[in-house]
Amino acid sequence: MNKENRLVKNVILYTIGNLGSKVLVMLIVPIYTHYMNPAEIGYYDLIVTLAGLICPVIMLSIHEGVYRWLLESGQKKDRIIRSGLFIWGSGVLLTALGFIVVNHYIEIQYAFLVFAIIALQSLYNLVLEITRGLKHTVSYSVSGIVYSCIFFIANIVLVCVLKKGLIGIFVSLIVALLGTIIFLYSIQRDLRINIERPNKNVIDKRMIKYSLQLMPNSISWWITSYADRFMIKMFLGMSMNGIYAIAAKFPSALSMITSIFYSAWQEQAILTYDDENRDEYYSKIFAQYYKALFCIILMAIPLTKVVINYTMTQEFHSASKYIGFLYLAGVFQAFSAFYGTGYLSTRQTRGAMTTTIVGAIMNVVINALFMPKYGLQIAGFSTFFSYVTVWGLRIFQTRKYFRIYIRWGKFSAIFMLVIAMIIASIKGDGIQNILLFVGAVFVSIIINQKTIKEMIRLIYAKKSGKSE
Predict the structure, then answer these.
(1) pLDDT, tens digit, for every residue of 277-303?
(2) Start-to-end CA span in the chain (Å)
(3) Cα distance between residue 225 and residue 387, in whole Å
(4) What is the Cα–Cα distance from 337 to 262, expressed in whole angstroms?
(5) How far apart are alpha carbons 204 and 291 in whole angstroms?
(6) Among the four 327, 337, 416, 421, which has the fewest Cβ within 10 Å?
């Protein structure tokens, strides 16, 4: 199987496990707006955001090291998995002590549920990366469906039927995480054996060092992506954070798409790093990638405004004004992650850390300086600008690993088309945004016609091969 076919196969498998399942999660967003007020949604968003910060800290980002080492583990996979489980267990115990101390002085609303979410989310992340590292791609894909189905059903029962509100969402998340972990534990013999026979004397120090260098990177990614939630609460209030949380839910669908591709690309980039035609191959994939992402948000921006205005209550309609920069932020985050595979391929993760730290600092500074005066729009803009900065730094920094050649004229033209769409969508009404969406579909087909033809040819070739 050649490189392109292998990449397409992995993308398809990851898509099966994520696309349909994440659609279920997206369907919950309008439901929340009918059963909860903006302040409640804002608090839930803060807790989930906080979990994203604490998880890599308590685990020392060991899940990323486990994945990287398992790809080349040979016969050492038992030692690698046990190292990850031991670090997770130690981190959870320390976190429990920290929660007891903090909650003694500052009461945390639903403290036990919040702790359970953090502990299970960190274990869930580790088990998923173990599954990927063992190249159990089908199990990884199916787990996404299992998680989302459990989460969706639990929300319908607890939030819609029993009307448990915030507690219902928290419990739904806990049940979904725990159920998926049990599912993966039950179908993977490697994982089951290593959970049952932990050994504290198997810590792989090189893997720990690799992971520790990625921990500041994970924290900085978190700050760049999510610190604005806390600054919104500080400067604008919890209700405005609820509006922003709804606006961010739609661009999170883009992040879902890019995470699917990145999961497949990460493995492919590492395994093909030493190939002679590496730069040519990387450049070709990136060209197709950026055109596809720009066109996705070109269509998504007007469509999202229509969805918000026709499916959500009046108090959330203003969220449509903030989606543009959030979509762009998701695109440039994906570009940064694409270049970040250079650090993983060479195991030189310090560069990943420094670039994301710069982006995180920029995000906080822009929000602190301009949010009190210019309001909620600054949150999306600061995130977008920070990711542009990270990507720019990585372009120069990764040249010692590989060279990706970009046709900047074409890149800039498509980017400016997206900016024009953001402005037109904000000013347009429902009918005008539907027309903008239809126009964006035609433009996207023209821009990506070469890639579309290649995909059709590949699908046709596969069908012809099977018929023979």
Answers:
(1) 888 989 998 999 999 999 999 999 999
(2) 17
(3) 9
(4) 8
(5) 41
(6) 416
